[in-house]
Amino acid sequence: MTSTTDSGAGTDAGTDAGTDADAVRPTLRGLGRRWRQRREAAAHLRRLLPYARPGLVALTLAVHVVAGAAPVAFMAGTGFALQRVVTGEPATGWLAVALVAFVVQQLLAPVQLVLSRKVQRRVDAACIERLTSFAFHGATLAGLERPDVADRLAQAEEAFEQWTLTPGAALEGALALTARYTQLVGAVALLAVVVGPGAAAAALAVALVARVGQTEGFFRWGRLIRSFGPLRRRVTYVRELATGTRAAKEIRTLGLVGWLEDRYVAENRAVLEPTWRWRREVYGAPFVVYALVAAVGSVVALLLVARSGADVAAVSIAVQAVALCGRFGVIFPESDVKLVYGRSAWEAMLELEDAARRTGAPARADGAVLRPAREIALRDVRFGYTPDRPVLDGLDLELRVGTSTALVGVNGAGKTTLVKVLTGMYTPGAGSVLVDGTDLRGLDPDAWQRTFAATFQDFLRYELTLRENVAMGAIAHVDDDEGVAAELRRVGLGDWLDGLPQGLDTPLTRAVPGGRDLSGGQWQRVALARSLFAVRHGAGVLVLDEPTAQLDARGEAEFYDTFLDLTRGVTSLVISHRFSTVRRADRIVVLDGGRVTEAGTHDELVALGGEYARMFEVQARRFTDGSPPAGPAAGHADDDVEVAP
Ligand SMILES: Nc1ncnc2c1ncn2[C@@H]1O[C@H](COP(=O)(O)OP(=O)(O)OP(=O)(O)O)[C@@H](O)[C@H]1O
């Protein structure tokens, strides 16, 4: 396989620098590397065999061998029968061989097809399960957020969407090569018998040289195409923006249609032009050269046949055998195309697993939840998405069990990042997260993540029923209709629920009859109800990241009127730019420069006269005189502080 490190595939594609340079211009040193890659590729394909199961693989191989031998037997049967007729000997035996070979050939063609499809289906079904299981259990959030991992995932998904280019197709294509090689061996053996070993060796050599040359060019082409993945996906993204309904409103309102059209043409050209160029260079030119090698080689072999003094029948066999060897001068559509593209998908899956594993895969757990008894503490935590840019830099924070903490800070201060570290989705580069004094590294990460009920800014809108949308917070309790309805009432959706003809069974999508789409604010309330439902069923810590960003002023006021009630006795962490939310928390912490710079109650922080007091004053002034703030605060353009205290 083309390994992550040495292929360059999957790096920034679309520029010469981003592609596999060795694939474009082969070097002598590269030959050894590509030989290794071929061996690795074969080893990776063998790993698919168990998915197809040994019995089916053995049967498919046997059928391919017989199907490959049948045309050779037909050639031999007809040729030797002709010889017998010419010499006046009985030809019945050879005619029978030809007849049986012909019938077998006709009968086996559909059997080959059926078995091949079966191999593909079995392998692909197993690979899809493997990919799904990996996405759910094998990958950490940190892994999935890495561009190289996301790219491999997209590539593997794309293959399964198109079905013809899957790992199953690659294995099926590889097995189908058996028929071709059986034919080659048979043809060479026939040549050796009817003409002599010289002609046989020449035909074999020509076939193998042409084969290696053709596949080399084609496989190099496959690697280049693969390195184009990210760029092709960007073209798809721009096309979907233009043709999809989701962005239609904004694109038309902003007058972006022309710009987007130009962008699509430019992005598409950036893919197509090098593709055409490299197709000519990497695949087209070798194709012509090796097709010529095969043609010239076949002519030479035929000349050897002509000079051998063989009789008419032997010449007839030899000509057919040479023609069969000559077919190795072109790409085999039933095998090579599937092998190149399908193998790419399989290798993307393997690389995906490998890359994500290096970020530390989460362990599978038994559904247990860790419940802190006293406090969760972050001690001198340092974390950055890249080593050179720390987002959290020596952060200390305690969350006392049963109390509410509000986190305040300007855009990009690292509030969401702190939640990711706190919930164990990311591991700090230095420092530690302590649960009642025990380092999180020694605890079950799955159980720890289940401790949290979280509503993130980009919460999910599941196209499922209202009941399922809420019960997702604790899916084992999906039958708790009373609990689901109670949480919907707590977030202010009681009257709306009562007015729904299908009640909790209402699908939250317009894509199905009777379904409803919700406003942004209604969706946010449903997401809040989901977190509250999780707390109702055992989650120990409630995290709300901008929980009211999409609520109208009344909705927000209602939410915060009941905030204390909603979170009473629950350990909660609320991130908000809105001080009406923040001031009600038991403790407020200000995040700045990657660390906590102020902590206390609202009154304490206002009295302190620091950053919190300044931000609070900005909001208060907006509320009282409606004018933009002046003075030093005006410099903080990122301070998204809008609602009055
Ligand atoms: N997945 C990621 N990969 C790389 N950088 C990231 C990622 N997520 C966030 N960042 C960067 O980390 C920094 C902190 O982002 P974070 O989302 O934690 O800020 P925040 O305080 O929650 O901001 P906001 O108030 O706008 O929601 C930002 O500079 C952001 O660009």
UniProtKB/TrEMBL annotation:
Record's InterPro entries? AAA+_ATPase, ABC1_TM_sf, ABC_transporter-like_ATP-bd, ABC_transporter-like_CS, P-loop_NTPase, Type_1_exporter
Q: How does it sit in the membrane?
A: Multi-pass membrane protein
Q: PROSITE patterns given for it?
A: ABC_TRANSPORTER_1 (PS00211), ABC_TRANSPORTER_2 (PS50893)
Task: Look up keyword Nucleus and say if it applies.
Answer: no
Per the record, which residues fall in region Disordered? 1-23, 623-645
What are the entry keywords?
ATP-binding, Membrane, Nucleotide-binding, Transmembrane, Transmembrane helix
Q: Report the locations given in the UniProt record.
A: Cell membrane
Show where the ABC transporter domain sits: 376-618
The GO terms this record gives for MF are:
ATP binding
Q: So which domain of life are we looking at?
A: Bacteria
- Compositionally biased region (Low complexity): 1-21, 625-635
Short name of one Pfam family: ABC_tran
Which chain regions cross the lipid bilayer? 56-82, 94-115, 184-210, 283-305, 312-332
Q: Known SMART domains for this protein?
A: AAA
Q: What is this protein called?
A: ABC transporter ATP-binding protein/permease
